[in-house]
Write a structure and sequence with these properties.
about 400 residues; 19 helices; globular
């Protein structure tokens, strides 16, 4: 957005509450719409820029706009090329507004005290889930924990009095929020809490009749068990999850979780077999439903495979898979810090000290920005391996970078 256009919008925001509300709608609708287009095209960087635009402009008008509870600033008759485009804009606007105000927008407009759960409010929750799912890929998940917890509690309360025809889809969306809570708890290394959310998501899947959610909940439980040092338990969960008639992408992800388990148990043959099963599933057409593992791609599978091979001592092959995985990860994506850390480890194992330190430098920059205990611990494991070379210049430089980040309180 050009400077002149930005100045014009700032002027509009300052005029009055009504005008600020209208300007806020236009800005968020535009940013949200661009973000959804970016989501469709998997251009996550564009989505991040849209979110930043919303935050920058939205904070100036949020208080004024929310002071008036009327819905006149949600122009239901707004002209649009298609109804679908308008709905995307409207839903994106409310999702963005809710996140940037810490849940205030949805609380004010759709609170349990004065509204029943309808298909419209459920659509807003779906938008929020989509928004959260992408946002935590690019920003510290801790920033969204309180808001996600609040929205999950609020939706659970609304479900108590919901009509029967809305309860089933409502429970499915509630299960998606629970799965996000599990991922955030995992990111904090709160494995017991992550397991509780995963079990609850699985149970909610049974209530809603969602085979995908039931399988995904067990997959989350398996994923958590792997990093809690219980790969045999993880495999039992994976085997149980694979019995559900879930989407191909969810089944592919479950096999990838099994790849983690088999590598922890040192079984290279089973790792290879699980990777092949996942690859075959990736060839299936994309489901029209809302599979929870819809963002699991071949490049993500490459990441799981590379990490597994690294554990098995196959560092050269692991490096190739990890490099492939990184070709599709946005530079700011939180998962890329894990891939970079593992890639640096593979390079170190092959005696490429300078290259390993260069890769590690990129990893710590991202991990520090995300403030993820799980990702930082993984990086510190690499630092301990580098201690054997602490007199070497590349390692000294890396330690200096870490020290600088510590002193600036980034990590």
């Amino acid at each position: 957005m050009g400077e002149d256009r930005a100045a014009t919008i700032r002027t509009m925001l300052a005029e009055s509450a009504e005008t600020a509300a209208q300007a806020l709608y236009m800005v968020i609708a535009q940013a949200g719409f661009l973000g959804l287009l970016a989501e469709r095209d998997k251009e996550h960087g564009t989505l991040v820029e849209s979110v930043r635009l919303v935050e920058w402009l939205g904070r100036s008008a949020a208080d004024n706009a929310l002071a008036d509870r009327s819905t006149q600033w949600f122009p239901t008759g707004r002209a649009s090329s298609t109804r679908r485009v308008y709905e995307m804009e409207r839903r994106a606007m409310l999702a963005a507004m809710t996140v940037l105000t810490g849940g205030v927008a949805l609380d004010r407009l759709f609170s349990p005290g004065d509204v029943k759960l309808t298909s419209e409010t459920l659509d807003h929750y779906r938008s929020l889930v989509d928004y959260y799912r992408h946002a935590i890929e690019h920003r510290p998940s801790v920033q969204f924990a309180a808001s996600i917890n609040h929205q999950a509690d609020m939706l659970e309360e609304l479900l108590h009095d919901a009509k029967s025809n809305i309860r089933i889809p409502g429970f499915s969306v509630y299960g998606e929020l629970l799965s996000l809570q599990a991922w955030i708890a995992f990111d904090r290394r709160s494995f017991d809490m992550a397991a509780q959310y995963a079990k609850k998501a699985h149970g909610v899947g049974a209530v809603s009749g969602s085979q995908d959610l039931q399988a995904y909940g067990l997959g989350l439980l398996a994923y958590t068990s792997n990093f809690a040092g219980k790969p045999k338990d993880a495999l039992r969960h994976v085997e149980a999850a694979l019995r559900f008639d879930a989407s191909p992408s969810t089944h592919a992800w479950l096999n990838a979780v099994g790849v983690e388990s088999y590598s922890l148990l040192g079984s290279e043959y089973e790792v290879s077999a699980a990777v092949q099963r996942a690859e075959r599933l990736m060839d299936h057409p994309v489901s029209e439903e809302r599979p929870l593992a819809e963002h699991f791609t071949r490049r993500r599978l490459d990441g799981y495979t590379g990490t597994a091979l690294l554990r098995l001592g196959r560092s050269e092959t692991a490096e190739r898979y990890l490099a492939q995985a990184l070709t599709s990860e946005a530079a700011s994506n939180s998962h890329s810090s894990v891939l970079l850390t593992d890639l640096a480890t593979a390079q170190l194992d092959q005696g490429e000290l300078a290259l390993a330190c260069e890769t590690a430098s990129r990893a710590i920059e991202i991990a520090a920005q995300r403030r993820s205990p799980f990702r930082l611990e993984r990086f510190h494991t690499l630092l301990r391996k580098l201690d054997a070379f602490r007199s070497e210049t590349p390692v000294k430089n890396l330690h200096e970078q870490v020290r600088t980040l510590l002193e600036s309180a980034i990590i």
